[in-house]
Amino acid sequence: MNLEMLTLVLVASLVVMLVAGQWTAFALGICGVLVLFLSKGALGLTALSSVVWNNANSYILIAVPMFLLMGEIILRSGVSSYFYRGIVVLLRRLPGGLLHANIASCAVFSAVSGSSVATAATVGTVAIPEMLKRGYEPKTVFGSLAAGGTLGILIPPSIIMVLYGALVEESIARLFIAGVLPGLFMAGIFMLFIAILLILKPHYAPARGNRSDEDAGGEVLHALPVLGLLVVVLGSIYAGVATPTEASALGALGAIVLAIAYRSFSWRIFNEALMATVKTTCMVALIIIGAQILSTALTYSGVSRSVSEWILALGLGKWEFFLALVVLYIVLGCVVDGISMIYMTLPVLLPVVKTFGFDLVWFGVILTILIELGQITPPVGLNLFTIHAISGGHKFSEVATGSAPYVGLMLLMILLLCLWPEIALWLPTTMRG
Description:
Order of helices and strands: HHHHHHHHHHHHHHHHHHHHH
Helix content: over 70%
Strand content: under 5%
Low-confidence stretches: 210-215
Number of domains: 1
Largest sheet: none
Number of helices: 21
Radius of gyration: 22 Å
Distance between the termini: 50 Å
Oligomer: single chain
Structural class: mainly alpha
């Protein structure tokens, strides 16, 4: 079978299975097996065993369940609720106080948990009833929670960056540190937008003087333990004391210590956290294995090389190609989850990205932001559905409308990274070890 027909069969079969509701992992794996068989016959299938073993036996990917366990314990033990109370008091004097607390809390929680959906649900469950009762405009509340939940995909430790680094064979430690400043910049842009919005439309939030927790200064101390845990995890990586895999284990242990210190640790919570971690890890592992089978098939069959040569033959300039990539990932983000986006596209696009001379650490940060964007764009914006489910009966359109401005802010962050790539690349150059 020639490459054109093979590519057509691949695209058609993948689209049919995804539209039919087949699990992403199995859709990718089945397409890979099909391409291998059509291009190499039964002999090509002998590569499957090594592909599965090499990906299931990866030392780097041990960081995934450890970071997930850290987040699950923090969220399930109630330590996250104490942290939110501290952030609320700390930021209460800013225009739109609790809205800023949403952004800050979501940024830290999602960094700890590695799951934007879990973060949006956890913070939203606490914040939405309280904020609506105080008179905050609903769309603004929902938008800040949905967008804030995405920040942890960029702010390390990030599961997406672990998977990207493993796929492109780039230093995960450098990727983590590269995400720090862009993540903080984006959180700052979100908070600046909220401040300007509340100055222009002060009726979106209650008057700042009407606070029942005005004397709750001691609550601020609750923000320190979780922040301290993140500093220890990231600091050990930055200083070269620990690898990301070792730091993930340190973070999981630190989360257990915090839960015990707050007297909220129990075997029931630990068991629930372990089960949730195993379920999520199995899902991620299946997607990785299925995607690597497809990647191997694309390489063996020559489809990957053929598509790369076709893209280069279009004669696009470096930034024209980059703009096309941004549009591609925005469209994919509307219908496909972030992990699948990475493993579906990079095997084909990575050679072209390298040919145009894009720094892979910088590109990893850009790709992570585009995946974040997909979390708040319908029809498959998982954060939107999460916030809508706990909104107390409000319309889905209110959640989507409230999140829409943050899509533009994320694209603005991508533009800033294009103009000043040092935002992402400076900090990794100062790392030790």
